[in-house]
Design a protein that fits this description.
alpha+beta, Glutaredoxin, 48% helix, 2 domains, globular
């Protein structure tokens, strides 16, 4: 019985260490992206203020049925410019931002630097918090 408990405890500890390592890697990658020059093909897409890049594919059902309606709700709350990009067709951009899965959303701040990257489905609450951080929403939306 003690043996099983120790194996379970080891599994939990390893999972927590892996989660911590992934978060540190993501933070490190975002810091590196903040100082790297943006690719030339993305410059014409960006307005003067913050924007949201939405990476998807033609066959992504989760993108179509879950992420797209969430982004429509976000647009109802904030004057956000959303650029829908195909991760397959825009492979160089996907590689630049480290897109591993779709849907992925990338916030670009006022200074035209990546402020946040959401790999996978991003809930509306997370997107609203990030919109507050980039200055698109008033702080009362923050949860």
């Amino acid at each position: 019985m003690l043996e099983r408990f120790l194996i379970l405890l080891l599994g939990v500890v390893l999972t927590l260490v892996a989660l911590y390592a992934w978060r540190r890697f993501a933070a490190w990658r975002l810091q590196r992206l903040a100082v790297a020059p943006l690719p030339a093909e993305i410059e014409p897409l960006l307005p003067s203020g913050p924007a949201l890049l939405y990476f998807t594919t033609a066959t992504c059902a989760q993108c179509r049925y879950q992420q797209t309606p969430i982004l429509a709700q976000l647009q109802a709350d904030a004057p956000v410019t959303i650029h829908k990009l195909d991760a397959v067709e825009q492979e160089a951009l996907a590689r630049f931002f480290g897109i591993l899965t779709v849907p992925t959303t990338v916030w670009i701040d006022q200074t035209r630097r990546p402020a946040a990257i959401n790999h996978g489905l991003a809930p509306l609450t997370t997107l609203r918090q990030q919109a507050v951080q980039v200055g698109l929403l008033a702080p009362e939306y923050e949860i």
